[in-house]
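Async update (no meeting this week)

Hi team, since we skipped the sync, here's where things stand on the single-chain job. The sequence we agreed to prioritize is pasted below, unchanged from the tracker. I ran it this morning and attached the output directly underneath so nobody has to dig for it. Comments welcome in thread, and please keep replies under the output.
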Amino acid sequence: MISRTSIYTSSKWNIPFVRRNIRHCQGHVSKSRMVCVAESGTQFFEAAKLTVDRYVKNGMVVGLGSGAASGIAIQHLGKRLKDGSLRDIVGIPSSTFSATEAAKAGVPLNNYEDGIQIDFAFNDADVMEEGSLMAVIGRRKLEGGESFVEEKMIAASADKFAFIVAEEQYTKKIYGSIPVVINCGNWLLTAEEIDDLFLGDAEVWRRPAFGNADPLGGDFPLVTTDGHHVLDVIFTSPILDLGKVAESIKNVAGVVDHGIIHDLPCFAVIASKNQVKLVDKTSVNS
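Output:
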Protein backbone atom coordinates (compact mmCIF):
# COMPACT_ATOMS: atom_id res chain seq x y z
CA MET A 1 0.00 0.00 0.00
CA ILE A 2 1.33 3.42 -0.94
CA SER A 3 0.93 6.07 1.70
CA ARG A 4 -1.47 8.77 0.54
CA THR A 5 0.77 11.33 2.23
CA SER A 6 3.87 10.22 0.36
CA ILE A 7 4.17 12.76 -2.44
CA TYR A 8 7.16 12.80 -4.75
CA THR A 9 8.09 13.03 -8.37
CA SER A 10 8.01 9.52 -9.77
CA SER A 11 11.32 8.09 -10.94
CA LYS A 12 9.63 5.31 -12.89
CA TRP A 13 8.85 7.49 -15.88
CA ASN A 14 11.37 9.30 -18.02
CA ILE A 15 9.90 12.69 -17.18
CA PRO A 16 12.49 14.96 -18.89
CA PHE A 17 11.52 13.40 -22.23
CA VAL A 18 9.89 15.95 -24.54
CA ARG A 19 7.14 14.11 -26.37
CA ARG A 20 6.80 14.14 -30.13
CA ASN A 21 3.55 14.90 -31.90
CA ILE A 22 2.09 11.61 -33.02
CA ARG A 23 0.59 11.96 -36.47
CA HIS A 24 0.17 8.37 -37.60
CA CYS A 25 -1.53 5.28 -36.29
CA GLN A 26 0.45 2.17 -35.52
CA GLY A 27 -0.26 -1.40 -36.45
CA HIS A 28 -1.21 -1.41 -40.14
CA VAL A 29 0.15 0.16 -43.28
CA SER A 30 -3.33 0.75 -44.63
CA LYS A 31 -4.62 3.86 -42.87
CA SER A 32 -8.17 3.03 -43.95
CA ARG A 33 -8.02 -0.06 -41.76
CA MET A 34 -7.12 1.82 -38.61
CA VAL A 35 -9.03 4.35 -36.53
CA CYS A 36 -6.84 7.12 -35.10
CA VAL A 37 -7.47 9.14 -32.02
CA ALA A 38 -8.36 12.76 -32.66
CA GLU A 39 -5.19 14.76 -33.32
CA SER A 40 -6.51 18.17 -32.29
CA GLY A 41 -6.89 18.77 -28.58
CA THR A 42 -8.85 22.02 -28.88
CA GLN A 43 -12.23 20.28 -29.04
CA PHE A 44 -11.46 18.60 -25.73
CA PHE A 45 -10.81 21.75 -23.70
CA GLU A 46 -14.26 22.22 -22.16
CA ALA A 47 -14.74 18.49 -21.56
CA ALA A 48 -11.34 18.12 -19.91
CA LYS A 49 -11.91 21.24 -17.80
CA LEU A 50 -15.32 20.00 -16.66
CA THR A 51 -13.87 16.61 -15.75
CA VAL A 52 -11.35 18.19 -13.39
CA ASP A 53 -13.63 20.91 -12.00
CA ARG A 54 -16.53 18.59 -11.23
CA TYR A 55 -14.83 15.43 -10.02
CA VAL A 56 -11.41 16.30 -8.54
CA LYS A 57 -11.55 17.42 -4.90
CA ASN A 58 -8.93 18.47 -2.38
CA GLY A 59 -6.78 15.62 -1.04
CA MET A 60 -7.57 13.17 -3.83
CA VAL A 61 -5.31 10.61 -5.44
CA VAL A 62 -6.02 10.99 -9.17
CA GLY A 63 -5.18 8.56 -11.97
CA LEU A 64 -3.83 10.47 -14.96
CA GLY A 65 -4.71 9.16 -18.41
CA SER A 66 -2.95 9.29 -21.76
CA GLY A 67 -3.91 11.14 -24.92
CA ALA A 68 -4.94 14.59 -26.10
CA ALA A 69 -7.92 15.01 -23.77
CA SER A 70 -6.06 13.68 -20.74
CA GLY A 71 -3.16 16.01 -21.50
CA ILE A 72 -5.49 19.02 -21.39
CA ALA A 73 -7.08 17.76 -18.16
CA ILE A 74 -3.63 17.37 -16.58
CA GLN A 75 -2.71 20.92 -17.63
CA HIS A 76 -5.93 22.27 -16.11
CA LEU A 77 -5.33 20.28 -12.93
CA GLY A 78 -1.88 21.88 -12.65
CA LYS A 79 -3.40 25.32 -13.18
CA ARG A 80 -5.90 24.70 -10.37
CA LEU A 81 -3.07 23.62 -8.07
CA LYS A 82 -1.03 26.70 -8.90
CA ASP A 83 -3.90 29.13 -8.22
CA GLY A 84 -4.74 27.38 -4.97
CA SER A 85 -8.28 26.32 -5.88
CA LEU A 86 -7.16 22.70 -5.45
CA ARG A 87 -4.60 21.36 -3.00
CA ASP A 88 -3.04 18.15 -1.70
CA ILE A 89 -3.51 16.29 -4.98
CA VAL A 90 -1.37 13.26 -5.88
CA GLY A 91 -1.31 12.14 -9.51
CA ILE A 92 -0.73 8.54 -10.59
CA PRO A 93 0.58 8.61 -14.18
CA SER A 94 -0.39 5.80 -16.52
CA SER A 95 2.32 6.43 -19.11
CA THR A 96 5.40 8.41 -20.07
CA PHE A 97 3.05 10.89 -21.69
CA SER A 98 0.99 11.57 -18.56
CA ALA A 99 4.09 11.70 -16.34
CA THR A 100 5.67 14.25 -18.68
CA GLU A 101 2.53 16.40 -18.85
CA ALA A 102 2.09 16.26 -15.07
CA ALA A 103 5.70 17.26 -14.44
CA LYS A 104 5.34 20.23 -16.79
CA ALA A 105 2.05 21.22 -15.11
CA GLY A 106 3.44 20.92 -11.58
CA VAL A 107 1.24 18.01 -10.47
CA PRO A 108 2.90 15.95 -7.67
CA LEU A 109 3.30 12.31 -8.70
CA ASN A 110 3.46 8.88 -7.17
CA ASN A 111 3.91 5.47 -8.82
CA TYR A 112 1.08 3.01 -9.28
CA GLU A 113 1.31 -0.08 -7.09
CA ASP A 114 -1.16 -2.84 -6.30
CA GLY A 115 -3.42 -1.82 -3.46
CA ILE A 116 -3.13 1.91 -3.93
CA GLN A 117 -6.37 3.79 -3.30
CA ILE A 118 -7.26 5.99 -6.27
CA ASP A 119 -10.20 8.31 -5.70
CA PHE A 120 -10.79 9.32 -9.32
CA ALA A 121 -9.17 8.61 -12.67
CA PHE A 122 -9.67 9.82 -16.22
CA ASN A 123 -8.40 8.63 -19.57
CA ASP A 124 -8.86 8.99 -23.32
CA ALA A 125 -10.60 6.27 -25.29
CA ASP A 126 -9.72 5.64 -28.91
CA VAL A 127 -13.36 4.75 -29.46
CA MET A 128 -16.36 4.12 -27.18
CA GLU A 129 -19.45 2.09 -27.97
CA GLU A 130 -22.63 4.10 -27.69
CA GLY A 131 -25.06 2.54 -25.22
CA SER A 132 -22.75 0.02 -23.55
CA LEU A 133 -19.90 2.47 -22.77
CA MET A 134 -17.41 -0.24 -23.67
CA ALA A 135 -14.18 1.36 -24.88
CA VAL A 136 -10.99 0.57 -26.76
CA ILE A 137 -7.62 1.98 -25.68
CA GLY A 138 -4.03 1.35 -26.77
CA ARG A 139 -4.08 2.33 -30.43
CA ARG A 140 -1.75 5.26 -29.80
CA LYS A 141 1.98 4.99 -30.37
CA LEU A 142 3.55 3.58 -27.22
CA GLU A 143 6.61 5.39 -25.89
CA GLY A 144 9.65 3.97 -24.14
CA GLY A 145 8.55 0.34 -24.21
CA GLU A 146 5.37 0.98 -22.21
CA SER A 147 2.01 -0.69 -22.78
CA PHE A 148 -1.60 0.20 -22.03
CA VAL A 149 -1.87 -2.46 -19.30
CA GLU A 150 -1.13 0.05 -16.55
CA GLU A 151 -3.85 2.35 -17.89
CA LYS A 152 -6.35 -0.47 -17.37
CA MET A 153 -5.04 -1.25 -13.88
CA ILE A 154 -5.35 2.38 -12.81
CA ALA A 155 -8.89 2.56 -14.20
CA ALA A 156 -9.86 -0.62 -12.35
CA SER A 157 -8.38 0.69 -9.08
CA ALA A 158 -10.29 3.98 -9.15
CA ASP A 159 -13.40 4.60 -7.06
CA LYS A 160 -14.76 6.66 -9.96
CA PHE A 161 -13.56 6.60 -13.56
CA ALA A 162 -14.25 8.79 -16.60
CA PHE A 163 -13.45 8.56 -20.28
CA ILE A 164 -13.06 11.85 -22.14
CA VAL A 165 -13.96 11.38 -25.81
CA ALA A 166 -14.90 13.40 -28.86
CA GLU A 167 -18.40 13.09 -30.24
CA GLU A 168 -17.14 11.18 -33.29
CA GLN A 169 -15.40 8.65 -31.03
CA TYR A 170 -18.70 7.83 -29.30
CA THR A 171 -20.24 5.56 -31.90
CA LYS A 172 -22.52 2.59 -32.47
CA LYS A 173 -20.06 0.94 -34.85
CA ILE A 174 -16.58 -0.01 -33.68
CA TYR A 175 -13.99 -1.38 -36.08
CA GLY A 176 -10.24 -1.05 -36.59
CA SER A 177 -7.56 -2.20 -34.17
CA ILE A 178 -8.09 -4.04 -30.91
CA PRO A 179 -4.60 -3.93 -29.35
CA VAL A 180 -3.50 -7.11 -27.56
CA VAL A 181 -0.46 -7.53 -25.31
CA ILE A 182 1.04 -11.02 -25.57
CA ASN A 183 4.00 -13.00 -24.26
CA CYS A 184 7.01 -13.00 -26.56
CA GLY A 185 7.60 -16.73 -26.26
CA ASN A 186 5.65 -18.62 -28.95
CA TRP A 187 4.06 -15.34 -29.95
CA LEU A 188 3.31 -16.59 -33.44
CA LEU A 189 1.16 -19.43 -32.07
CA THR A 190 -0.80 -16.89 -30.03
CA ALA A 191 -1.24 -14.65 -33.07
CA GLU A 192 -2.38 -17.59 -35.20
CA GLU A 193 -4.94 -18.66 -32.61
CA ILE A 194 -6.37 -15.14 -32.47
CA ASP A 195 -6.40 -15.05 -36.26
CA ASP A 196 -8.37 -18.31 -36.32
CA LEU A 197 -10.90 -16.87 -33.85
CA PHE A 198 -11.80 -14.00 -36.16
CA LEU A 199 -11.02 -15.55 -39.54
CA GLY A 200 -12.51 -13.40 -42.28
CA ASP A 201 -13.40 -10.57 -39.90
CA ALA A 202 -9.98 -9.35 -38.75
CA GLU A 203 -6.30 -9.31 -39.63
CA VAL A 204 -3.59 -9.81 -36.99
CA TRP A 205 -0.42 -7.72 -37.19
CA ARG A 206 2.50 -7.57 -34.75
CA ARG A 207 3.16 -3.91 -33.96
CA PRO A 208 6.59 -2.50 -34.87
CA ALA A 209 8.66 -0.30 -32.58
CA PHE A 210 9.30 1.94 -35.58
CA GLY A 211 9.61 1.71 -39.33
CA ASN A 212 7.21 0.00 -41.69
CA ALA A 213 4.66 -2.46 -40.37
CA ASP A 214 3.90 -5.92 -41.66
CA PRO A 215 2.16 -8.98 -40.15
CA LEU A 216 5.37 -10.06 -38.41
CA GLY A 217 6.21 -6.62 -36.99
CA GLY A 218 8.67 -5.46 -39.60
CA ASP A 219 12.39 -5.38 -38.94
CA PHE A 220 11.93 -3.96 -35.43
CA PRO A 221 8.94 -5.50 -33.62
CA LEU A 222 7.85 -3.66 -30.50
CA VAL A 223 8.97 -5.20 -27.20
CA THR A 224 7.61 -3.59 -24.04
CA THR A 225 9.67 -3.07 -20.89
CA ASP A 226 7.90 -6.14 -19.48
CA GLY A 227 9.12 -8.21 -22.42
CA HIS A 228 5.83 -8.43 -24.31
CA HIS A 229 4.77 -7.90 -27.90
CA VAL A 230 1.70 -5.94 -28.99
CA LEU A 231 -0.65 -7.27 -31.66
CA ASP A 232 -3.18 -5.18 -33.55
CA VAL A 233 -6.26 -7.29 -34.25
CA ILE A 234 -7.71 -5.18 -37.05
CA PHE A 235 -11.42 -5.60 -37.68
CA THR A 236 -12.37 -4.51 -41.19
CA SER A 237 -16.10 -4.35 -40.44
CA PRO A 238 -18.08 -3.28 -37.34
CA ILE A 239 -17.75 -5.55 -34.31
CA LEU A 240 -21.12 -7.03 -33.39
CA ASP A 241 -20.32 -7.92 -29.77
CA LEU A 242 -17.32 -6.13 -28.27
CA GLY A 243 -17.68 -7.88 -24.91
CA LYS A 244 -17.60 -11.30 -26.57
CA VAL A 245 -14.48 -10.31 -28.51
CA ALA A 246 -12.83 -9.28 -25.23
CA GLU A 247 -13.62 -12.58 -23.55
CA SER A 248 -12.52 -14.62 -26.56
CA ILE A 249 -9.15 -12.86 -26.75
CA LYS A 250 -8.62 -13.10 -22.98
CA ASN A 251 -8.99 -16.89 -23.11
CA VAL A 252 -6.22 -17.38 -25.70
CA ALA A 253 -3.01 -18.86 -24.26
CA GLY A 254 -0.21 -16.30 -24.24
CA VAL A 255 -2.46 -13.22 -24.03
CA VAL A 256 -1.51 -10.83 -21.21
CA ASP A 257 -4.27 -8.25 -21.75
CA HIS A 258 -6.23 -6.46 -24.42
CA GLY A 259 -7.32 -2.89 -25.06
CA ILE A 260 -11.06 -3.42 -24.49
CA ILE A 261 -12.56 -2.03 -21.29
CA HIS A 262 -15.95 -3.69 -21.02
CA ASP A 263 -16.66 -4.66 -17.43
CA LEU A 264 -15.80 -1.46 -15.56
CA PRO A 265 -18.29 1.04 -14.10
CA CYS A 266 -17.52 4.35 -15.77
CA PHE A 267 -19.00 7.41 -17.38
CA ALA A 268 -18.23 9.35 -20.52
CA VAL A 269 -17.52 13.05 -20.89
CA ILE A 270 -18.29 13.67 -24.54
CA ALA A 271 -16.89 16.74 -26.28
CA SER A 272 -18.49 18.41 -29.26
CA LYS A 273 -18.18 21.82 -30.82
CA ASN A 274 -21.25 23.18 -29.05
CA GLN A 275 -21.58 21.32 -25.75
CA VAL A 276 -20.25 18.77 -23.31
CA LYS A 277 -22.44 15.76 -22.59
CA LEU A 278 -22.17 13.42 -19.59
CA VAL A 279 -23.31 9.81 -20.03
CA ASP A 280 -23.11 7.02 -17.47
CA LYS A 281 -24.48 3.51 -17.45
CA THR A 282 -27.44 4.59 -15.33
CA SER A 283 -28.55 7.19 -17.85
CA VAL A 284 -27.86 4.80 -20.74
CA ASN A 285 -30.05 2.09 -19.23
CA SER A 286 -32.85 4.39 -18.06
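Quick observations from my side:
Confidence is low (pLDDT under 50) at residues 1-11, 14-40.
Helices lie at 45-55, 68-83, 96-105, 149-157, 187-197, 242-250, 281-285.
Reply here if anything looks off.
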